[in-house]
Amino acid sequence: MITTERLILRPFDLSDAPAVQKLAGAREVAYNTLLIPHPYPDGAAEAWISKPRNENELSFAIVLRESGELAGGISMIVNRDHQRAEIGYYIGVAHWGHGYATEAGRALVRHGFEEMALNRVHAEHFTRNPASGRVLQKIGMRHEGTQRKHLVKWGEPIDVELYGIVRDEWDANSTNRTILRP
């Protein structure tokens, strides 16, 4: 579990399934993520939560500390051989614009560098979703390029923006050391 000023990042539980289906099932969320389907089928949230994961697949529910409400999800796929990880996230539409993705992303990147001794964390987003790019910039990532027509979502080839941050850049930013709260 990872705690920030306003959030708790914790493993998903089967009791989260109805909220996951509601949040991830919104067309606006599915439209901007590669693997979330729309419509979101009944039982898919339970199947995803129950799916066995190995030690290199970290997946956290983003929970509001004050209310206990599920706001979204964030994950990290770790490649230990190369000391790197990729993060991905979604936030439910009702929670957009509150900085939760930035806060959760910064906490997970911090965890990667400080607890897992990673050397690099990277992410990508659809070009048509510039808000996600702003999140990645706020957590210190640099734009590393564009992959044109790299993925296909709902039959449409889409461009992808690549971002990354390395440990030296993270360590140089003192803001990153003060984000977690007891």
In short:
With 182 residues, the chain is an alpha+beta fold. Helices cover 28% and strands 34% of the residues.
Descriptive terms for the model:
single chain, 182 residues, alpha+beta, Aminopeptidase
Strand content: 25-35%
Given the structure, what is the number of helices? 6
The dominant shape is globular
For the largest beta sheet, what order do the strands appear in spatially?
Answer: 1-2-3-4-5-6-8-7
Count of extended strands? 8
Q: Can you say what the CATH homologous superfamily is?
A: Gcn5-related N-acetyltransferase (GNAT)
Spans of at least 5 consecutive residues whose pLDDT stays below 50 are none
CATH level-3 fold name = Aminopeptidase
Listing every helix as H and every strand as E from the N terminus to the C terminus, the arrangement reads: EEHHHEEEHEHEEH
Secondary-structure-based class equals alpha+beta
- Largest beta-sheet characterization: 8 strands, mixed
What is the C-alpha radius of gyration, as a whole number of Å?
16 Å
Measured as a percent range, the helix fraction is 25-40%
Can you describe what's shown?
- The protein has one domain: Gcn5-related N-acetyltransferase (GNAT) (Aminopeptidase), CATH 3.40.630.
- With 182 residues, the chain is an alpha+beta fold.
- It contains six helices and eight strands; from the N terminus they run E-E-H-H-H-E-E-E-H-E-H-E-E-H.
- Helix 1 (17-24) crosses helix 3 and helix 4 crosses helix 5.
- It starts with a strand and ends in a 10-residue tail after the last helix.
- It has helices at 17-24, 27-31, 44-50, 100-115, 130-138, 167-172, and strands spanning 2-3, 7-10, 57-64, 70-79, 84-91, 120-126, 142-153, 156-166.
- The chain has an eight-stranded mixed sheet, with helices on both faces.
